[in-house]
# Entry
Amino acid sequence: MARVEQVCRLVLSVGALAVIAVLLGSASWAQEMATSSHSKPRIEKGLPGKREFQNRPTREFRPPGVARAREAAGPRQERIRTESRLGRYANDLETEYPMKQPQRIVTVLLAIIGSFISQTVLSQTSKPKVVVLATGGTIAGAAATGTQSSYTSGKVTIDAMLDSVPGIRDLANLKGEQIANVGSQDMSFEIMLKLAKRINELLATNDVDGIVVTHGTDTLEETAFFLNLTVKSDKAVVMVGSMRPSTALSADGPLNLYDAVAVAADPQAKGRGVLVVMNDWIQGAHSLTKTSTTAVQTFMSPLRGVVGISAYGKNDFYNTPSWKHTTSSEFDISDVTKLPRVDIIYGDVDMSPDLIDCSVRNGAKGIVIAGVGNGNMNKASIDAAARAVKQGVVVVRSSRVVTGTVGRNVEVKDDELGFVASDELNPQKSRILLSLALLRSHSPEQIQQSFATY
# Structure
């Protein structure tokens, strides 16, 4: 793209110089015509040696009767005589300088058109190229009326979404692709794998500068974290959604999408991992979580804070997530078609241990406990989890609490029982990381290190 831009700039410069040169030449030609019309002699064909000046004298001898007749004829007759003289002068010019004036006009027009085309191509190539991958969700949803709370996700195509946002194509050269069109409650590992592979394919080329992914908000944080671990490029990958469907009164989707494209096109977004842009906030995939069922400001990053702000396409970055991601991630899904089963079991008062036993019997390779407080569970459930570990199932203790970390060996003897503590990751993200870690043979100690790293 840089080479194309250089060529366009060269063509633009040459075109501009051509216009200046032609205009200067035209001015010189006009001056030459003015001089020639008064002084240049012409030899008439067939009369050798006879000279006749192109312009007749402005004053000539007129008999007194003729002069008085002309004065009586008035301005109209004088205008006719003037036009007649101009006509003869034009004919003289055409005879003396055949086709020169039309040629110069055509040259000027061609030079101007060439400069315009060069400028147009340059403006297109100088903008970043961003591909928008659509998966559905509320941002693509539609309802019967603008005030109806019920709606159907994934009804609007990506091309229709882009066409509905004024000025969005001024930010970047955009291309849309429809990866899926589902509500995010129906998001699957199959779609996530397809999405990650397509992103890696696009970003491996020099023609794409950034990616935007439209997604439903229900499971957006899980897909964002999955991409954060599996994308193999430091180019910007930005996820975006909305809390109101496209048909809603005061829909939040159009501005969210506009800001997401602005972030994806911003060179400063590079190297920050997968980002999520909604309601003016730029947040990192590792830390954000959905906190409200309906509010437009649903996503928060309670432990690490926002990465930056995007206000009507103007971006201000505050920090760069320090966790390993994208190009520094060890996880490669190039040849992966299926992820191992990992279940989440919710901890509560008088928790039933047979849920853990049932999960093991049905083929789970890993279990995440959404425990109370600091990832705790009652004694019966701890015993059931310990039995699962002895059968080769990896057990991760996370917490149902919105904020805070789960530490090792606080109230539960993790080293003795072989459990893994989730550190900052909530249960749903713990499941994503554990599913990827189980693609390779890892000991509980190695998996614990992954939770401290990613």
User: Anything to note?
Assistant: Residues 2-123 form one domain.
